[in-house]
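4.2 Preliminary Data

To establish feasibility before requesting continued support, the project team ran the inverse folding procedure on a target of 553 residues. The structure was first converted into the token representation described in Section 3, and no sequence information of any kind was made available to the design step. The complete token record follows.
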């Protein structure tokens, strides 16, 4: 395991107390009034939920450019503040029920309360899945390196596959098992399951919802998957993807299995074991819907604070500016998913951190403040930047990602998503030591947060990225209070119309966490070190190869 020199931490800790790295200026605390003003504005009804390709996007971009310009930052993309991200907005219309026939009884699931369905295909053609044979493929995983293939011995071309969410071993108490036990791997994410189903030639892929392994209730699925959906544009209009993708409620999935003479609980238990073989359910699926297509150019915002002596080396700050726009109505009729916590807080934090760094003065390395689009649609803006970087990834030192800052109040800890993966843990530990706080592992690794925010797009390309959440061990109320706050947000506000600005929020925890982002970023921007992934990490070889290429140039 590679770690930074043991001689560095004391020197850097002292420097961190005065700003970070080799910085001798006094620490400049990011301004909470700036945060409050911007979060309130970004999450107002005027911005209509900040969906890509809407008037809300333009208002968001205009606001960010005005703020970065006022601070004296430079447009980061060859004189432009923007990086174009080609997207396609697809809105399902005239959606029929998803019906299963040929079993003991016809099972019909209604669009919205019992199933959601859409498509990645962007040619605008009507999707019509008719009498498609249905195959239960367990967790839908094909992992040769783990000697695991849920598609072994079955041909699903042109068929409908029904898939379980998460990994086969998510219920393990510890972090050991073929798929890391409780810690979700990428094989557990819904994105992977749709990708693999497409590779197998499935006409339709339907995931069975279950609140615990999915990490959110059906209300989140319904609000997130109905209405306009964003997909990446492609030359082939995503013709290689399954025609229909979606989710089915757990109750309807149980009814489907019963109609097919099967039991969902028993099938799930079988699917958790190595050697599971897919089950032809002997029923046929039908669903149809029209697609309203609108191609548009969304935008990432790229702001640059140039460095001094190492200006061609870059430290990255990321946050997604988008949210869901108009979504499923709340009981009071409110249909704007304002996204105050998710992620007006992170977007505002970008500006507050830029403001603090400008006040503190330039660092040796350049700092990039990147607000990305379409995170809610599958990290599309971050993935586009990672595939088309404005600044070479081999010259990008590392980054910190900010998503959904916690308003639960000050905590004794922070929860690190992906703790132990990279040398960035050392930077964070130094920053925490200033305030006598600690870093802890995530208490719910089965929720797969590592794969659910923008840092993942950069990690896959080898760039070390730090992502942490507000602590769950609150100064007032301890872990019980932290857990209660997290559950309340997830159940009542996450991806819903009630994620709104609250003038009574306690900002003390955010203020403390912003100082950590500042210290870590400032340290990275004022050292000559190149942090890496630890030996054996899945991203280490990618980083090593890119750095070798940079050294040869």
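Position-by-position output of the design step:
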């Amino acid at each position: 395991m590679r770690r930074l020199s043991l001689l560095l931490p004391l020197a850097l800790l002292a420097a961190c107390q005065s700003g970070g790295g080799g910085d001798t200026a006094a620490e400049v605390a990011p301004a909470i009034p700036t945060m409050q003003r911007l979060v309130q504005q970004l999450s107002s009804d005027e911005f209509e939920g900040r969906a890509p390709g809407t008037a809300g996007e333009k208002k968001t971009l205009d606001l960010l450019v005005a703020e970065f310009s006022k601070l004296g930052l430079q447009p980061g993309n060859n004189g432009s503040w923007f990086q174009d991200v080609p997207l396609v907005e697809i809105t399902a219309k005239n959606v029929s029920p998803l019906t299963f026939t040929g079993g003991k009884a016809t099972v019909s699931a209604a669009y919205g309360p019992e199933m959601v369905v859409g498509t990645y295909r962007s040619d605008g053609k009507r999707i019509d899945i008719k009498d498609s044979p249905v195959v239960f493929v367990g967790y839908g995983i094909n992992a040769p390196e783990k000697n695991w293939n849920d598609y072994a011995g079955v041909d699903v071309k042109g068929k409908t596959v029904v898939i379980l969410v998460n990994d086969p071993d998510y219920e393990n108490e510890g972090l050991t098992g073929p798929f890391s036990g409780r810690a979700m791997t990428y094989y557990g994410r819904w994105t992977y399951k749709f990708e693999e189903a497409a590779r197998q030639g499935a006409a339709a892929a339907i995931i069975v919802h279950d609140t615990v392994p999915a990490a959110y209730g059906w209300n989140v699925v319904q609000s997130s998957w109905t209405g306009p959906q964003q997909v990446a544009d492609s030359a082939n209009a995503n013709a290689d993807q399954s025609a229909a993708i979606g989710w089915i409620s757990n109750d309807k999935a149980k009814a489907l299995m019963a109609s097919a003479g099967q039991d969902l609980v028993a099938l799930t238990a079988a699917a958790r074991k190595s050697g599971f073989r897919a089950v032809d359910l002997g029923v046929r699926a039908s669903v149809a819907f029209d697609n309203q297509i609108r191609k548009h150019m969304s935008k990432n915002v790229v702001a640059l604070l140039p460095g001094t002596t190492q200006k061609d080396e870059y430290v990255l700050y990321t946050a997604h500016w988008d949210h869901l726009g108009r979504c499923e109505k709340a009981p009071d009729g409110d249909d704007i998913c304002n996204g105050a916590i998710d992620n007006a807080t992170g977007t505002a934090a970008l500006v507050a951190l830029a403001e603090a760094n400008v006040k503190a003065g330039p660092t040796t390395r350049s700092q990039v403040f990147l607000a990305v689009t379409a995170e809610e649609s599958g990290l599309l803006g971050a993935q586009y930047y990672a595939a088309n970087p404005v600044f070479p990834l081999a010259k990008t030192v590392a980054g910190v990602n900010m998503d959904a800052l916690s308003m639960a109040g000050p905590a004794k800890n922070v929860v690190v998503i992906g703790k132990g993966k990279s040398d960035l843990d050392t930077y964070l530990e130094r920053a925490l030591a200033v305030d006598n706080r600690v870093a802890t592992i995530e208490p719910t690794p089965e929720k797969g947060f590592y794969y659910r925010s923008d840092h993942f797009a950069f990690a896959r390309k080898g760039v070390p990225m730090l992502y942490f959440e507000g602590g769950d061990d609150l100064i007032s109320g301890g872990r019980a209070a932290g857990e209660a706050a997290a559950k309340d947000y997830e159940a009542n506000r996450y991806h819903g119309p009630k994620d709104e600005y609250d003038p009574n929020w306690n900002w003390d925890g955010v203020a403390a966490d912003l100082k950590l982002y500042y210290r870590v970023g400032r340290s990275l921007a004022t050292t000559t070190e190149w942090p890496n992934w630890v030996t054996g990490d899945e991203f280490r070889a990618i980083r090593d190869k890119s750095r070798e290429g940079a050294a040869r140039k």
